[in-house]
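User: I'm putting together notes for a lab meeting next week and I want to include a structural view of one of the chains we've been expressing. I don't have a solved structure, so I'd like a prediction I can at least talk through. The sequence is below, exactly as it appears in our construct file.
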Amino acid sequence: MKDPSSTLLLSGIHRPASFQDGAELDGVVIPLLHGFGPSGMKKRGLGSRSWIQIDKNGKSQILVLDKATLLKRCGLPARDLRLLDPLFVYPSTILGREKAIVVSLEKVRCIIMADDVFLLKSMDGCVLQYESELCQRLQTMKDQNDDLPFEFKALELALELASSSLDSQVTGLELEIYPVLEELASSISTVNLEHVRRLKSDLLALTHRVQKVRDEIEQLMDDDGDMAEMYLTEKKARMETYLATEQYVNSLSSEDPVSRSVPCSPTGSSIEEPGKAWSSAIMSLSKHDSSRSSSNRRWNVEELEMLLEAYFVVMDYTLSKLLSLKEYIDDTEDFINIKLNNVQNQLIQFELLLTAATFFVTIFAVVTGVFGMNFVDSVFNHPSNFNSVVIYSSVCCAVAYLFFLLPRAVRFWTMAFRNKIGSLFNQALTSNPSIYQAMRCMSSSKLFVGGLSYATDDQGLREAFSSYGEVIEARVIMDRESGRSRGFGFVSFASGEEASQAMSGLDGKDLHGRLIRVNHANDRPSGPRGGGFGGYGGGGQGYGGGGGFGGGGGYRDDNDRF
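Assistant: Thanks for the context. Below is the predicted structure for the 562-residue chain, given as structure tokens.
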């Protein structure tokens, strides 16, 4: 039987505790406000909430627990429970405590213990998905021989849902941002600018959330003590072994008749020998169990580290896509600024032309003004002189203005001619890629090296290529955030012939345990989708190569194999 108050609690509507203790006025009960008065002050913060309990067998039930009961049961401080409050916005956090793991990842907020999970009841789709998915997985794996502890299964599902949720949001943002930026690049308007501003705000907020989840996972991976603290099943087993051993020792001491009948003896060593033997045997057993658990702890920590590393890679890739989006937006803004500056320059040039025309017209006006003075001169005796002055003045001003425009006209037509020749040449190279490849190979002395191992540094890359010629520069591209290798680099030779020999000799060969790919590196081509604006691949052209995020630099692989 459930009373009305419990029904309200299960539905998520908290009923004030003082609702039935209101004052009566004209036969109408007026409820008192909850939280005021001495009784309200005492009970504030101790309200009950509905929690979904999921055990290791995949069975779930709804419990109504107050704050004190839950804290005592899970062994948590009050500040950890505040992280699970849906009314407050807290950054993503994973905390390992003595008896529980507190998980607050996006909308998945739960307390993971050695035998069960407490999930705050909510109608949110992510919470319902976590409950159903965890129950289904536990019931499926119940008959299977799975060595992964229960708490790691629950933690893995929370990480999976959080990463998939963030990745889906990033994908949706990508699908929305790219068309808007393309439209803005072609048509600059107030509506498009406002739309891009809103999308950029959403992008920055999402980047902060993804960065927080990634940093939280990385912080756990960097501290073996925190990871060992999260192995709740092992700690519970050690505690149960210790309690059983202590209970067994106490039972032996209480059942020893010699100890009870003879309190002391001159030859106590012979009388107390059996008790000492039992104690030493039990202590050796406990030490053996402790050493065995400590030896297994490293394996367990490595297992948890592998679990965290998998989702760290996922979040790192998601973050790289967000950074690529941000770079694409920044490149589009730069492109818009260039277009606006170009329009401004055209207006300035037009203003300069008008100013020059006004200057020469003013000169003509000065000449006509001089002859318009009221003084006696023989020039005015012949009417044809007026026509001669006007014609000569007009011709001189026009010739001077043409000389002013001539350098600009020559520069304009020269640039137009060069652009036309360049476009024809590019079309010829595009239609004949073999010609372009041959020309580039003859002139390029810089190589792109992909698929590098994380252990490869600049010196190792230089030593590997130095046997093919004089290496001017060997550089492994490092990630600015983590300082780790991104899996690719560049090698510059003194001549293009040496670079070609190195490419043919090392392409597809093993270097530090990885098969590398070597090709000529050239500047990224210009255009709205590549190079200048990052393209749809932006700075992170995919997740591959030597375990790093490809692209991202000022060069690309010609065969798009990276």
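A couple of points you could mention at the meeting. The radius of gyration is 40 Å. The chain is about 60% helix and 15% strand.

User: Perfect, that's what I needed.
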